[in-house]
Amino acid sequence: MAYDEALAQRIREALDGDPALTEKKMFGGLAFMHRGLMFVGVSGTRLMARVGAAQYADSLAREHVREMDFTGRPMNGYVYVEPAGLTDDGLQFWVQRCKAFVMTLPAKAARPATAAKTAKSAKGETAAKAEKGEKSVKLTNSAKPAAKGTKPATPPAAAKKRRPA
């Protein structure tokens, strides 16, 4: 599902100047994050709003708002705001409400690098050294110990011993 780029631009303008904000394509739309936590997003022409459990009932009581049922079940603390509720003042209200809620939560911790990313960056470092003419170190994965009661695997060349002719 595509998202309304004009609405996304309006959100960017409403949030202008905050260095803790990022955008991420997700849910088939665009999510706006504050310190790594999603607080508003664009799904089709609707605003996804993370209002939190305390403001959930009040948010649902407002015009042009309904439960966010992205997964087929209502998600507590999240609502959809239909385009009719996104006047300039309306959009500003929702952006501020959601940002205020997310500011009460601890920042999301950065994910540690995955093994694949680490190996990829290490291979890149090795290639860079080779271009400079430096000696490179061969990267290998550490071998896992053999399970109890099993023999360690031997390479095929070492397994066959040649008999003198």
Structural notes for this entry:
- The protein is of the alpha+beta class and 165 residues long.
- It has five helices and six strands.
- The chain has helices spanning 5-14, 56-60, 88-102, 115-132, 156-159, and strands at residues 21-26, 29-34, 37-43, 46-50, 65-67, 78-81.
- A six-stranded antiparallel β-sheet has the order 1-2-3-4-6-5.
- A hairpin with a 2-residue loop joins strand 1 (21-26) and strand 2 (29-34).
- The longest helix has 18 residues, at 115-132.
- It is elongated.
- Mean pLDDT is 80; it is low at 126-130 and 134-143.
Main traits of this protein?
6 strands, 165 residues, six-stranded antiparallel β-sheet, 32% helix, alpha+beta, elongated
Mean pLDDT: 80
Order of SSEs, N→C? HEEEEHEEHHH
Silhouette = elongated
Question: Taking Cα atoms only, what radius of gyration do you get, to the nearest Å?
Answer: 26 Å
Task: Itemize the secondary structure elements and their pairings.
Layout: H1 5-14, E1 21-26, E2 29-34, E3 37-43, E4 46-50, H2 56-60, E5 65-67, E6 78-81, H3 88-102, H4 115-132, H5 156-159
Antiparallel strand pairs: 1-2, 2-3, 3-4, 4-6, 5-6
Give a brief description.
With 165 residues, the protein is α+β, with helices and mostly antiparallel strands. The chain has five helices and six strands.
